[in-house]
Write a sequence for this structure.
């Protein structure tokens, strides 16, 4: 069972806006920043969002992140077929002398 | 361009020690940042194993801490993972990565199977 909670699946049609939630606690999301990763089938994860809402160079502005309290969200607007992937949230957790924790992942299907 | 490449045996026997090395190119480990290992069992999610700072300070996943050692060799621009007393539950794709506050560079991953 993952420390951060994500819905196992999400879906949308091309052009739609989809959001993926990530729920944590005061020891992780509540006190540290959140990163989001995209993992296409058979490939290594790719950093999508860092520090809650910052996009690395090269990531389209269709992807955006937000955080409020002990929860975070990833929004994808103008959904495209190539967005079909697994998405993971991650944060540092201050408990147990500190550790990085991930969400269980959300499989996004583009219908 | 920063690149990371994992190397090591793809098959390890139960109770033995898993050993992997990550070779970094395009960036000097001694320049900074954290360098870590993440694994992903087949069909499952990501699990952080631990990280090492360029100076040698280490942070380990508490659930694996008793079995994990991460070390760095700045002269070779490499860092390594040792996981002892492995079982089938340790079968996974192992990724090495650079952590700058987000994991911005990942190796391609290497599948390690624990089986006799």
């Amino acid at each position: 069972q993952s420390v951060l909670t994500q819905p196992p699946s999400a879906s949308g049609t091309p052009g739609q806006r989809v959001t993926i939630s990530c729920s944590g606690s005061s020891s992780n999301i509540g006190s540290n920043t959140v990163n989001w990763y995209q993992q296409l089938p058979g490939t290594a994860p790719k950093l999508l969002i860092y520090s809650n809402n910052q996009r690395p160079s090269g990531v389209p502005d269709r992807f955006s992140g937000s955080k409020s309290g002990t929860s975070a969200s990833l929004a994808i607007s103008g959904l495209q077929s190539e967005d079909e992937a697994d998405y993971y949230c991650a944060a540092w957790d201050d408990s147990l002398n500190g550790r990085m924790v991930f969400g269980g992942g959300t499989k996004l299907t583009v219908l | 361009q920063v690149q990371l490449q994992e190397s090591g045996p793809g098959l390890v026997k139960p109770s033995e020690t898993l050993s992997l090395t990550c070779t970094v190119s395009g960036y000097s480990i001694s320049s900074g940042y954290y360098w870590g290992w993440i694994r992903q069992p087949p069909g499952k999610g990501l699990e952080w194993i631990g990280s090492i700072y360029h100076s040698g300070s280490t942070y380990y996943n508490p659930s694996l801490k008793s079995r994990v050692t991460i070390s760095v060799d700045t002269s070779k621009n490499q860092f390594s993972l040792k996981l002892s007393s492995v079982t089938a539950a340790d079968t996974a794709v192992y990724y090495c990565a650079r952590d700058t506050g987000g994991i911005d560079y990942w190796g391609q991953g290497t599948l390690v199977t624990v089986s006799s």
Observations:
- Chain B touches chain A at residues 36, 45-48, 51, 59-62, 95, 99, 101-104, 106-109 (CB under 8 Å).
